[in-house]
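S.,

Sequence below, as promised.
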Amino acid sequence: MATTAESRNGVVIILTLIVAMLLMLVPLPETARYFRPEWVVLTLVYWAMALPHRVSIGVGWLVGLLMDVTMGGTLGIMAFSYAFAVYLIARFHLQLRQYPLWQQALTILSVVVVVHLVSVVTSKSESTWLIWMPVLTSTLLWPVMFATLRKIRRTFQVS
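The prediction came back faster than expected:
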Protein backbone atom coordinates (compact mmCIF):
# COMPACT_ATOMS: atom_id res chain seq x y z
CA MET A 1 0.00 0.00 0.00
CA ALA A 2 1.32 3.43 -0.92
CA THR A 3 1.94 5.89 1.84
CA THR A 4 0.45 9.36 1.85
CA ALA A 5 3.77 10.92 0.82
CA GLU A 6 4.13 8.56 -2.15
CA SER A 7 0.61 9.22 -3.41
CA ARG A 8 1.04 12.99 -2.95
CA ASN A 9 4.25 12.86 -4.95
CA GLY A 10 2.48 11.38 -7.93
CA VAL A 11 -0.27 13.95 -7.67
CA VAL A 12 2.27 16.78 -7.94
CA ILE A 13 3.54 15.40 -11.26
CA ILE A 14 -0.01 15.00 -12.55
CA LEU A 15 -0.96 18.51 -11.45
CA THR A 16 2.03 20.08 -13.21
CA LEU A 17 1.10 18.22 -16.40
CA ILE A 18 -2.52 19.38 -16.11
CA VAL A 19 -1.39 23.00 -15.64
CA ALA A 20 0.85 22.65 -18.71
CA MET A 21 -2.08 21.29 -20.73
CA LEU A 22 -4.28 24.15 -19.57
CA LEU A 23 -1.60 26.66 -20.58
CA MET A 24 -1.68 25.17 -24.08
CA LEU A 25 -5.47 25.72 -24.19
CA VAL A 26 -5.47 29.35 -23.04
CA PRO A 27 -6.72 31.50 -25.92
CA LEU A 28 -4.19 34.04 -27.15
CA PRO A 29 -4.53 36.98 -29.51
CA GLU A 30 -3.77 36.23 -33.14
CA THR A 31 -0.42 38.02 -32.95
CA ALA A 32 0.72 36.07 -29.87
CA ARG A 33 -0.44 32.57 -30.78
CA TYR A 34 2.76 31.82 -32.68
CA PHE A 35 4.85 32.58 -29.61
CA ARG A 36 3.17 30.07 -27.25
CA PRO A 37 5.85 27.79 -25.78
CA GLU A 38 5.40 24.04 -25.84
CA TRP A 39 4.39 23.90 -22.17
CA VAL A 40 3.53 20.20 -22.14
CA VAL A 41 6.76 19.16 -23.83
CA LEU A 42 8.83 21.24 -21.41
CA THR A 43 7.03 19.75 -18.42
CA LEU A 44 7.36 16.19 -19.72
CA VAL A 45 11.04 16.76 -20.48
CA TYR A 46 11.72 18.04 -16.99
CA TRP A 47 10.01 15.13 -15.26
CA ALA A 48 11.57 12.58 -17.63
CA MET A 49 15.00 14.04 -16.92
CA ALA A 50 14.51 14.38 -13.15
CA LEU A 51 12.51 11.19 -12.51
CA PRO A 52 12.74 8.83 -15.47
CA HIS A 53 11.36 5.96 -13.38
CA ARG A 54 8.15 7.94 -12.72
CA VAL A 55 7.60 9.67 -16.09
CA SER A 56 8.19 7.19 -18.86
CA ILE A 57 7.31 6.74 -22.50
CA GLY A 58 3.83 5.54 -21.52
CA VAL A 59 3.16 8.76 -19.62
CA GLY A 60 4.34 10.78 -22.62
CA TRP A 61 2.06 8.78 -24.89
CA LEU A 62 -0.95 9.16 -22.59
CA VAL A 63 -0.43 12.92 -22.19
CA GLY A 64 0.02 13.22 -25.96
CA LEU A 65 -3.19 11.28 -26.54
CA LEU A 66 -5.04 13.61 -24.16
CA MET A 67 -3.60 16.60 -26.02
CA ASP A 68 -4.66 15.08 -29.36
CA VAL A 69 -8.22 14.80 -28.05
CA THR A 70 -8.35 18.26 -26.46
CA MET A 71 -6.67 20.07 -29.36
CA GLY A 72 -8.74 18.24 -31.95
CA GLY A 73 -5.77 17.05 -33.97
CA THR A 74 -5.17 13.76 -35.70
CA LEU A 75 -5.36 11.08 -33.05
CA GLY A 76 -1.92 9.74 -32.17
CA ILE A 77 0.29 12.48 -33.63
CA MET A 78 1.06 14.24 -30.36
CA ALA A 79 1.02 10.92 -28.55
CA PHE A 80 3.81 9.65 -30.79
CA SER A 81 5.85 12.84 -30.66
CA TYR A 82 5.57 13.22 -26.87
CA ALA A 83 6.46 9.56 -26.33
CA PHE A 84 9.45 9.96 -28.63
CA ALA A 85 10.57 13.11 -26.80
CA VAL A 86 10.33 11.34 -23.44
CA TYR A 87 12.27 8.40 -24.87
CA LEU A 88 15.09 10.68 -26.03
CA ILE A 89 15.28 12.46 -22.69
CA ALA A 90 15.04 9.25 -20.64
CA ARG A 91 17.75 7.67 -22.78
CA PHE A 92 20.20 10.47 -22.05
CA HIS A 93 18.93 11.75 -18.71
CA LEU A 94 22.16 11.06 -16.83
CA GLN A 95 24.19 13.10 -19.30
CA LEU A 96 21.60 15.90 -19.48
CA ARG A 97 21.63 16.35 -15.71
CA GLN A 98 25.33 17.17 -15.88
CA TYR A 99 24.97 19.87 -18.53
CA PRO A 100 24.72 23.54 -17.57
CA LEU A 101 21.34 25.12 -18.24
CA TRP A 102 22.39 26.71 -21.53
CA GLN A 103 23.45 23.31 -22.88
CA GLN A 104 20.26 21.74 -21.61
CA ALA A 105 18.37 24.49 -23.44
CA LEU A 106 20.10 23.52 -26.69
CA THR A 107 19.07 19.91 -26.11
CA ILE A 108 15.53 21.10 -25.45
CA LEU A 109 15.73 23.01 -28.72
CA SER A 110 16.41 19.81 -30.63
CA VAL A 111 13.67 17.86 -28.82
CA VAL A 112 11.09 20.61 -29.36
CA VAL A 113 12.11 20.82 -33.04
CA VAL A 114 11.39 17.11 -33.43
CA VAL A 115 8.02 17.38 -31.66
CA HIS A 116 7.08 20.52 -33.57
CA LEU A 117 8.26 19.09 -36.88
CA VAL A 118 5.93 16.11 -36.49
CA SER A 119 2.96 18.38 -35.82
CA VAL A 120 3.83 20.82 -38.63
CA VAL A 121 4.29 18.07 -41.21
CA THR A 122 0.99 16.41 -40.32
CA SER A 123 -1.08 19.60 -40.05
CA LYS A 124 -2.43 21.72 -42.84
CA SER A 125 -1.29 25.01 -41.33
CA GLU A 126 0.06 27.93 -43.26
CA SER A 127 3.72 27.86 -44.26
CA THR A 128 5.38 30.80 -42.60
CA TRP A 129 8.51 31.16 -40.55
CA LEU A 130 6.35 32.13 -37.55
CA ILE A 131 5.29 28.52 -37.02
CA TRP A 132 8.82 27.90 -35.68
CA MET A 133 8.55 30.54 -32.95
CA PRO A 134 7.33 28.05 -30.30
CA VAL A 135 10.69 26.29 -30.67
CA LEU A 136 12.53 29.52 -29.86
CA THR A 137 10.24 30.53 -27.01
CA SER A 138 10.41 27.05 -25.48
CA THR A 139 14.19 27.09 -25.64
CA LEU A 140 14.38 30.51 -24.02
CA LEU A 141 11.85 29.51 -21.36
CA TRP A 142 13.68 26.30 -20.38
CA PRO A 143 15.82 27.81 -17.57
CA VAL A 144 12.70 29.30 -15.95
CA MET A 145 10.73 26.06 -16.32
CA PHE A 146 13.64 24.05 -14.97
CA ALA A 147 14.00 26.27 -11.90
CA THR A 148 10.25 26.36 -11.25
CA LEU A 149 9.70 22.62 -11.58
CA ARG A 150 12.83 21.85 -9.54
CA LYS A 151 11.51 24.12 -6.76
CA ILE A 152 8.15 22.31 -6.90
CA ARG A 153 9.88 18.92 -6.85
CA ARG A 154 11.99 19.84 -3.84
CA THR A 155 9.17 21.58 -1.96
CA PHE A 156 6.84 18.61 -2.26
CA GLN A 157 9.69 16.08 -2.02
CA VAL A 158 8.75 14.33 -5.25
CA SER A 159 10.98 11.34 -5.80
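Residues 60 and 82 are 5 Å apart (CA to CA).

Coffee later?
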